[in-house]
C-alpha cells in the first residue's frame, strides 16, 4: 500500500470531509465547524484548506459520474423496496421522488468526499480503465 498521509486528528479529517462534501466553503460551513469545537480560521488558513479541498475533488473528478450513478441506483432500489409500504400509509409519490433526489444528492456528496480523501491519503489509487479488447 502507498504511504498514507492521514491527518493527525479525527477533527482535521472531519474538516476535510465536510469541506469536500459542499459546493462552496462558506460562512455557514465555518459556523458548523465552530459548533463542532474547531477554531475560527484565519483567511490564509481558510484559503489553504479550500485549495487543498478543491485539489482532492479534482482527483476524483473522473469518478464522479460513476459515484453518482451508484448512489442513484441504491436510492432508487431502496425506494422500490419501501414504496409499497409508503403507498399503504398514503404517502404521495411526488414526496418520495423528492426524497430520493435528496438522498442521492447527500450520498453523492459524501461518497465523493470519502473517495477523494482516500485517494489524497494514498489509501486507494485510481487509474483510468483500459479499453477492453
What is the strand and helix layout of this fold?
Blueprint: H1 10-20, H2 27-35, H3 43-59, H4 64-88, H5 93-120
- Give the termini distance in whole angstroms: 29 Å
Main β-sheet description? none
The overall pLDDT average reads 84
> Structural class, from secondary structure content?
mainly alpha
Structural Rg: 18 Å
Explain this structure to me?
The protein has 133 residues and is mainly α. The protein has helices at residues 10-20, 27-35, 43-59, 64-88, 93-120. α1 crosses α5, α3 (43-59) crosses α5 (93-120) and α4 (64-88) packs antiparallel against α5 (93-120). The two termini are 29 Å apart.
Name some characteristics of this structure.
133 residues; mainly alpha; flat
What's the short story on this structure?
The protein has 133 residues and is mostly helical.
Amino acid at each position: 500500500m502507498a504511504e498514507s498521509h492521514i491527518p493527525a486528528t479525527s477533527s482535521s479529517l472531519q474538516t476535510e470531509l465536510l469541506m469536500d462534501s459542499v459546493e462552496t466553503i462558506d460562512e455557514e460551513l465555518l459556523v458548523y465547524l465552530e459548533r463542532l469545537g474547531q477554531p475560527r480560521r484565519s483567511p490564509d488558513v481558510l484559503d489553504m484548506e479550500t485549495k487543498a479541498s478543491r485539489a482532492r475533488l479534482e482527483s476524483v473528478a473522473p469518478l464522479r459520474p460513476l459515484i453518482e450513478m451508484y448512489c442513484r441506483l441504491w436510492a432508487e432500489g431502496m425506494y422500490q423496496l419501501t414504496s409499497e409500504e409508503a403507498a399503504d400509509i398514503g404517502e404521495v409519490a411526488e414526496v418520495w421522488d423528492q426524497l430520493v433526489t435528496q438522498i442521492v444528492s447527500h450520498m453523492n456528496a459524501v461518497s465523493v468526499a470519502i473517495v477523494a480523501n482516500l485517494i489524497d491519503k494514498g489509501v486507494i489509487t485510481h487509474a483510468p480503465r483500459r479499453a477492453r479488447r
